[in-house]
Design goal:
about 325 residues, alpha/beta, Rossmann fold, 2 domains, two-stranded antiparallel ribbon
Length: about 325
């Protein structure tokens, strides 16, 4: 494979819309896309690839820049279809020195808007899809929402019961269950991206990431025409399971009493000043604490496996659905 030329990245922050705020633009667009699904090892893979000298990742985590605008579908139980998605500002410092500019956005996999944009406007982009057993993904997605969303406190049993009431079928108009019922369904979107982009896609089962992270990463780097990491390279895991700290002090930091919020607005009159002073104080309240993985009783486990039977069969027989050369590892 011929090496790619260096990509000059240009930032264009000078175009001002009404109100004087800057529109942030840069060219060329990211050309290495980790598109999900969510809770399939993408955060670890993102960090491992971003540590490579030829890869630049301009965001702290996800951007969903290809979905910017009204969301095509619910992205969490509290974010219904139509919720505005705004890409965060990119860090372009040194980006021009890298062969690959990476984006990780785990909802892109399900987005017709994202697929159309890559197909029509990003002809050189490479795409990585990651897979996970659908029942595990469903439960992990629930735990992730509990860990990240202050407003969401539905327990697992209730979430499963709500899903059962829908016969485990996703409905875009019911955000409370959509992410648990749609995001584990990886078969159809995976096949759509491969049908559209072919050799530009690689599919990585979570088992490959978990059992041999270095071999998995080096296989991807080889596909990109980049130097492989040396034997013995240690690759730590990221974003493992957890939950919001249930301690009273942590809850108070996350949601301060009204009188304290009022005092803060008087003593610190601007939002920028409040953030500068209070965010470091409040941040420990948002730090997740470790938690054991959830255990299902046999009846519920079998029920969920039946609900996701087609997805399980797809992943168990992946090489019969897609070209085996597109699969990274076959664990």
């Amino acid at each position: 494979m011929k090496p790619h030329p260096k990509r000059g990245v240009q930032s264009h922050p000078r175009h001002r819309p009404y109100g004087g705020r800057r529109v942030h633009r840069f060219h060329p667009s990211p050309n290495l896309l980790l598109i999900g699904g969510p809770k399939t090892g993408t955060t670890s893979l993102m960090h491992w690839l971003a540590s490579h000298e030829e890869i630049h990742h301009p965001w702290k985590n996800e951007s969903h820049f290809l979905m910017a605008g009204p969301a095509e579908f619910p992205t969490s139980p509290i974010h219904p279809k139509g919720t505005a998605i705004l890409a965060p500002r990119a860090d372009l410092d040194g980006a021009e020195e890298h062969q690959w500019v990476m984006d990780k956005s785990t909802f892109h996999l399900y987005s017709p808007r994202a697929l159309e944009a890559v197909s029509e406007h990003l002809p050189d982009a490479r795409v990585i899809i990651t897979l996970r057993h659908p029942v595990d993904l469903m439960l992990s997605m629930h735990q992730e929402h509990r860990k990240r969303l202050i407003e969401y406190d539905t327990d697992q049993a209730t979430m499963i019961e709500l899903s059962r009431n829908q016969s485990f079928l996703p409905d875009e108009d019911i955000p409370e269950t959509y992410s648990f019922l749609q995001f584990p369904r990886l078969k159809a979107p995976t096949l759509r991206w491969i049908e559209e982009l072919g050799e530009r896609v690689r599919v990585v089962p979570l088992s490959s990431i978990a059992t041999d992270p270095l071999a998995t990463t080096n296989t991807i780097l080889s596909w990109l025409g980049a130097n492989e990491m040396p034997p013995g390279t240690k690759l730590p895991r990221y974003n493992e399971r957890g939950q919001m700290n249930p301690a009273g002090w942590a809850k108070m930091l996350r949601t301060p009493p009204t009188f304290l919020s009022g005092m803060a607005k008087i003593l610190l009159p601007t939002k920028r000043l409040r953030r500068a002073v209070l965010d470091p104080i409040r941040s420990p309240g948002f730090k997740p604490v470790s938690v054991d993985s959830s255990v299902l009783d046999d009846k519920t486990s079998h029920e969920l496996e039946r609900a996701f039977a087609e997805e399980i069969e797809f992943q168990d027989n992946l090489a019969s659905y897609i070209d085996p050369s597109l699969i990274v590892g076959q664990g």
